[in-house]
Amino acid sequence: MPAFRFEAIDTAGQAQKGVLDADSARSARSQLRTQGLTPLVVEPAGSAARGERSRRLALGRKLSSREQAILTRQLASLLIAGLPLDEALSVLTEQAERDYIRELVAAIRAEVLGGHSLANALAQHPRDFPDIYRALVAAGEHTGKLGLVLSRLADYIEGRNALKQKIVLAFTYPAVVTVIAFGIVTFLLSYVVPQVVNVFASTKQQLPILTVMMMALSGFVRHWWWAILIGVAVVVYLVRAVLAQAGPRLAFDRWLLTAPLAGKLVRGYNTVRFASTLAILTAAGVPILRALQAAGETLNNRAMRGNIDEAIVRVREGTSLSRSLGNTKTFPPVLVHLIRSGEATGDVTTMLDRAAEGEARELERRTMFMTSLLEPLLILAMGGVVLVIVLAVMLPIIDLNNMVQ
């Protein structure tokens, strides 16, 4: 039975929105009137032809990573429990906490009832379900293991979100310290330094070179702060424009892999994503070449993505996966060794899972080490800047005291 999205007004004049099942739009309106609602908009949940108001409401709406993981987990549980796909989607529609999720699931269910596969139904919503997500769903449908594939996919999404959250939280404190330090230095240069130093400038006393330099810097900050902001914005725009081009972006990504400290973080994060995705794809029975291509598309470093393309060529020529990845000199040796062991035992999926878990723990350790190193360095840098400002203020006082004596 098709699903229809509706907007109506109840007897109290309150707006009501939702999704209901009906044979036709006319039948849906009848159901709404039976419930004491006055229908304003009734249209197929999967319809692309929506009014201007609906388009405005849809602007900026998207499934969050958390909502995507919950939706995937719920659908996997229902399918593993034995519910047919359309009934499982109907249950998710009723349980949805947000109107957008309710409309989204109803639209997917309408496509499935219309004869489309789940992967094709998800393809109508690329903002909510990326290519790799749909590829895994298609593989699960092809092998008849959709519930298990969705369960592993939910594990992957939850693990990725947890890892990202740990990295963000680890760098939050250094970021806050940097912002506070920048604010304090700006306040000292724009307000404190001029108030104190101008007293000595009016006495016609020869000021120390450090004080003169600090006064010049203070004047520049006070009078040309808008130029500084414009300059920073222009630099950011130019950098983004340059990195948007394929050649410079590839060169930057190659340099990033060799950068001190940051290079290992980038390499580790991409390795975790690659190994996890490849494990899910191989477990779903996806051919190795297609699995490598899909897993490579999840990498956000173009240099590593190019190395995967080279590995695909070698695997197509008959080289083993472990040797093909080892020849790239990009991925950690542990990953290559575990894949080689999996090839020898015939269980590559398990070894890829172990590699992903090990790299995730190593990435967390490196992140904590880097942040623990940044925190004292930031404090020292802030202390050094404040010390210079204090010296610029104190030196004229010391010189004046010597002159009085």
UniProtKB/TrEMBL annotation:
GO terms for biological process: protein secretion by the type II secretion system. GO terms for cellular component: plasma membrane; type II protein secretion system complex. It is found in: Cell inner membrane. The keyword Transmembrane applies. Coiled coil: none annotated. The chain crosses the membrane at residues 167-193, 223-243, 373-398. InterPro entries: GspF/PilC, T2SS_GspF, T2SS_GspF_dom, T2SS_GspF_sf. It comes from the Bacteria. It is a multi-pass membrane protein. Residues 72-194, 274-396 form the Type II secretion system protein GspF domain. Keywords: Cell inner membrane, Cell membrane, Membrane, Transmembrane, Transmembrane helix. Belongs to the GSP F family. This is Type II secretion system protein GspF. It comes from Trinickia symbiotica.
